[in-house]
Design brief:
heterodimer, A: alpha/beta, Amidase signature (AS) enzymes, 11-stranded mixed sheet, 11 strands, 12% strand, B: alpha+beta, Arc Repressor Mutant, subunit A, 3 domains, 10-stranded mixed sheet, 3-stranded antiparallel sheet, 15 helices, 39% helix, elongated
Chain lengths: 497, 487
């Protein structure tokens, strides 16, 4: 007898892979259950575009391949795709009005690899506009609600951002896995807020070709899943050199799943003292200490380390990322695609199009970026930020002489309510304080759900590793995951319980 | 208005000196664009050679074309310039509809080629060395078509992303002639290298003129930059106009405004485009989509070893091998095809005669017919055949010109035309003596004049004899025999 729909949507990628292999269900059955879950979860607004017909077609093709004895690594696994990845024939919005009506005639390299691996596309998930935000509230298509609520408190919460739709979709069981992009924490922070696993690989590990650019030197695609193993599986299918992305690195992709298992004996874990910030809630400090204990118990050697330039990371990030964004977003000018709002002359057309096409946060960052690159301010801001960036990288390089991975909290708070912090961009930017340093250094980082706050919301711990050593990061994450035994489910689970 | 004279301008208040620097944008010859695989042919249907990258579609990324890099290095080496083993692509940010990315990928602080030199061949046969400041690679923009619709501008992105080399000279030129010689020489070098076709009409070579005026020997004045000067003739016109304009401003007590000006080829004037105050802030910063370009020194050396013989070396060789004047040699080497043609003709023949025939008759016929040398009906072998007939006395120089015309018309070899039309020179003394005797007998009065000392009448006799021989009599023999018989 076929399993119930809620059992199907509760499957992890590894679980679904096994069930499909055993013939306990077909890819079509799994996909149908996930499509129903996507529909049921519409109140969360996690998806901008649902692609059920495409999903069923892909699922049937997958079943046919399986019948023919051809089974690929992600055969029949339904996935949700952040709507920053260009998908051929499927509208791609970047969460912005300015891409109105834009349907790419091409497929991003990462999604193309997923489909080649047999995966099934459920739809395109909501995000902060152009991935600029930590709450998913800047989307032109409306805020995403977290599937989590504080028990006894009906106020909707943010899922984090910018990959908020992807995180909410995975947490709410709309999909066993999703892909997102991380520029300063856009995968790790929403994963922490939604109680799931989110990984930012090393910069250059996954191709950026076909991903709508926010900040080119920082953007990196990565997986959001409910388990570390699933993150390893998904990353394996996404990673690899792409000659179309000059910053993608030509280095072999290891078998990430094979890195999992065992304890932490022989591993040295660094605890950076600069990550103890005033104002961090005591329960996050406590969870961090708990994480240290778990790893120690698993045989790891714990070392206090120093990353002396940490406090400069956030300001440097909020110079470099907007600088690149101000230039990357210049192409949205109403001339060739997307929104065009006519004007009396060319300048007015530009002003109308960009004025109406971009939301407030995007405009803020374009303004900041334009300012820090302008003549007379370039050295004081942009150049200084670049120097800070190289110092931050050196901090990490020095630290990794001593340790194999670094443990920190993922975010300085639990999820906040929809609408909160919107009038205070600085408070919003502070969400990225723990995730931004690894982004600036291009290093792999993962957020693992490690416990619940006093008000019953998930909290994450972050592991940071050496460049291209996702294996160690995943291995230690697996140890943390097992020790934490996080099994809480959000209040909203698509398809019910 | 002041007069220009060899670079110095005589104003009302005394002489002024021009200081000229040129920025040349040269389109690189290559199958594909600087950062995309799209084709680069000139004249294709609008927007038929546009990749997703060229159109700046969301998520598209540039990938550097190695061939473009090799072309830039080749050009740098030919300009005796320093090749920078590390260079950086930066973004030059500005909005324009034919600039799809909203920025041009260019090189700014770290160009691929640094300082070099170029030697100009001046009309008086002298040479002058001009410094090269730098050469960098950048993307070309698309084209805005303003004449396709009454209210709209159309955009053709075929050119968008094609590799340009921007070659910047030092402000070492002091006259319009020197500027013209600079472009001619640069163009010649680029064409020898095969890195740019130098076609100014099609826009593959474009020139901006930086010009300022000063009292001779004084400190540099404020310069203007004149854009859109797209032929050597226009460069001269723009310089002469702009120099006079600046002198007038200065002599009227005004100040030259540092600004960008546009050359209006129809009116022959320059016009202010935008002043320094309105100038764009391009907000250059390193393109985060591209890594620094690092060259392997061995690879650069390979390119250096593979360089062809360049115009200066070839000119020196022609002077040595064929005893040509530097000026003639300079004219012949300007185009590689001309020099090849010349060497094929001159080898084993009278080099000066070969030069005269090529620059006189062949160039004249090409000009009249509007043909290129490669299409000429008289190729090097045929011209050599004609010169051989002159050298061995088969035909006279005068007849040779008729034979050349016939060769140009028919494409036949000289010997065939001479044989068919019986144009062989009469060098038979007896036959010429008979004609001379007849002419003297028919003109006793003129013969008398010669005898009484009018030497000039000899020319008239030569003409009569040539006429009687239908031009075929050997002129040397005619002269000698006439003198004998008349005295």
């Amino acid at each position: 007898m076929a399993p119930a729909a809620s059992e199907l949507t509760d499957l992890t990628i590894a679980g679904a892979r096994a069930a499909l292999a055993k013939g306990e269900m077909s890819a079509r059955e799994l996909t149908e259950a996930q499509i129903a879950a996507v529909e049921a979860a519409r109140p969360l607004n996690a998806f901008i575009t649902e692609t059920p017909e495409k999903a069923l077609m892909m699922a049937e093709a997958s079943d046919a391949r399986r019948r023919a004895g051809e089974v690929r690594p992600l055969e029949g696994i339904p996935l949700a795709i952040k709507d920053l990845f260009c998908t051929e024939g499927v509208p791609t919005t970047a969460g912005s009005h300015i891409l109105d009506g834009f349907t790419p005639p091409y497929e991003s390299s990462v999604t193309a690899k997923l489909w080649e691996s047999g995966a099934v596309m459920l739809g395109k998930t909501n995000l902060d506009e152009f991935a600029m935000g930590s709450s998913n509230m800047t989307s032109y298509f409306g805020a995403v609600e977290s599937p989590w609520r504080r028990p006894g408190d009906d106020r909707p919460l943010v899922p984090g951002g910018s990959s908020g739709g992807s995180a909410a979709a995975v947490a709410a069981r709309c999909a066993p896995g999703a892909i997102g992009t991380d520029t300063g924490g856009s995968i790790r922070q929403p994963a922490a807020f939604c109680g799931i696993v989110g990984m930012k690989p090393t910069y250059g590990r996954c191709s950026r070709w076909g991903v709508v650019a926010f900040a080119s030197s920082l953007d990196q695609p990565g997986p959001l899943t409910r388990t570390v193993r699933d993150a390893a599986i998904l990353l394996g299918a996404m990673a690899g050199h792409d000659p179309k992305d000059s910053t993608s690195v030509d280095t072999p992709v290891p078998d990430y799943e094979a890195a999992l298992g065992g304890d932490a004996r022989g591993l040295k874990i660094g605890i950076p003292r600069e990550y103890r910030l005033d104002g961090t809630p005591p329960e996050i400090e406590a969870l961090w200490r708990q994480g240290i204990e778990w790893l120690k118990h698993a045989g790891a050697e714990i070392r206090d380390i120093s990353l002396p330039h940490t406090s400069y990371a956030l300001p440097a990030y909020y110079i470099i990322a907007p600088a690149e964004a101000s230039s990357n977003l210049a192409r949205y000018d109403g001339v060739r695609y997307g929104l065009r709002v006519p004007g009396a002359d060319l300048t007015e057309m530009y002003e109308n199009t960009r004025g109406q096409g971009f939301g407030a946060e995007v405009k803020r960052r374009v303004l900041i970026g334009t300012y820090v690159l302008s003549a007379g301010y370039y050295d004081a801001y942009y150049n200084k930020a670049r120097r800070v960036r190289s110092l931050i990288l050196r901090d990490f390089t020095d630290a990794f002489e001593e340790v194999d991975a670094i443990l920190t909290p993922t975010a300085p708070s639990e999820a906040f309510a929809v609408g909160e912090k919107m009038d205070d961009p600085i408070a919003m930017y502070l969400n990225d304080v723990f995730t931004v340093p690894a982004s600036l250094a291009g290093l792999p980082g993962i957020s693992v759900p490690a416990g619940l706050s006093a008000s019953g919301l998930p909290l994450g711990l972050q592991l940071i590793g050496r460049a291209f050593d996702e294996e160690t990061v995943l291995k230690v994450a697996g140890v943390l995951e097992e020790a934490a035994g996080f099994d809480a489910k959000p209040q909203f689970v698509a398809g019910g319980r | 208005m002041a007069d220009t004279n060899g670079g110095l301008i005589q104003g009302k208040t005394g002489p002024w000196e021009m200081v000229i620097g040129l920025e040349v944008h040269a389109q690189v010859i290559g199958e594909s664009k600087l950062f995309s695989g799209a084709a680069t042919a000139f004249g294709a249907a609008p927007n038929s050679q546009v990749s997703l990258v060229d159109a700046a579609m969301p998520g598209m990324l540039p990938v550097l074309n190695g061939h473009s890099v090799a072309q830039a290095v080749k050009t740098g080496l030919a300009l005796n310039a320093k090749i920078n083993l590390t260079s950086v692509f930066e973004r030059k940010n500005y909005f324009y509809p034919d600039l799809p990315q909203g920025y041009q990928i260019s090189q700014y602080l770290q160009p691929i080629v640094g300082e070099g030199t170029i030697e100009l061949d001046l009309p008086d046969g002298s040479t002058k060395e001009v410094g090269i400041e730098r050469l960098h690679m950048e993307q070309d923009a698309g084209k805005s078509l303003h004449d396709q619709h009454p209210t709209m501008t159309y955009i053709d992105l075929n050119r968008s992303g094609i590799t340009l080399m921007e070659i910047v000279s030092k402000p070492d030129m002091g006259s319009a002639e020197e500027a013209a010689a600079y472009i001619a020489k640069l163009r010649s070098i680029l064409r020898y290298l095969g890195t740019c076709d130098g076609n100014m009409e099609e826009g593959s070579l474009r020139c901006d003129v930086n010009l300022s005026m000063r009292r001779p020997g004084a400190a540099l004045g404020t310069r203007t930059e004149t854009k859109n000067v797209n032929s050597i003739r226009f460069v001269k016109l723009a310089i002469e106009y702009e120099a006079r304009r600046q002198v007038q401003v200065l002599e009227d007590g005004g100040k030259v405004v540092q600004e960008t000006r546009l050359f209006d080829a129809d009116k022959g004037v320059t016009r202010a485009m935008r002043s320094k105050e309105e100038a764009h802030d391009y907000r250059y910063f390193p393109d985060p989509d591209l890594l620094p370009l690092v060259l392997d020194p061995d690879w650069v050396e390979d390119i250096r070893r593979g360089l062809p013989e360049l115009p200066d070396a070839r000119k020196a060789r022609l002077v040595d091998d064929f005893a040509l004047s530097p000026y003639d040699a300079g004219v012949l080497v300007a185009e590689r095809e001309t020099a090849d043609f010349y060497e094929a003709v001159a080898k084993g023949r009278d080099a000066k005669l070969a030069a005269n025939w090529l620059t006189g008759e062949v160039f004249g016929a090409l000009n009249r017919s509007g043909m290129a040398l490669a299409e000429a009906p008289v190729d090097a072998k045929k011209l050599g055949g004609l010169i051989d007939l002159i050298a061995d006395g088969t035909i006279s120089g005068r007849i040779a010109k008729e034979v050349f015309e016939a060769m140009w018309e028919s494409g036949k070899p000289a010997a065939a035309i001479v044989a068919d039309q019986g144009l062989e020179q009469i060098s038979d003394t007896g036959a010429i003596e008979a004609i001379v005797a007849q002419v003297i007998a028919d003109s006793p009065g003129q013969a008398e004049q010669f005898k009484s000392g009018n030497e000039k009448i000899l020319g008239w006799f030569v003409g009569q004899v040539m006429k009687a021989s239908q031009g075929k009599a050997n002129p040397g023999l005619v002269n000698r025999i006439l003198r004998d018989k008349l005295s």
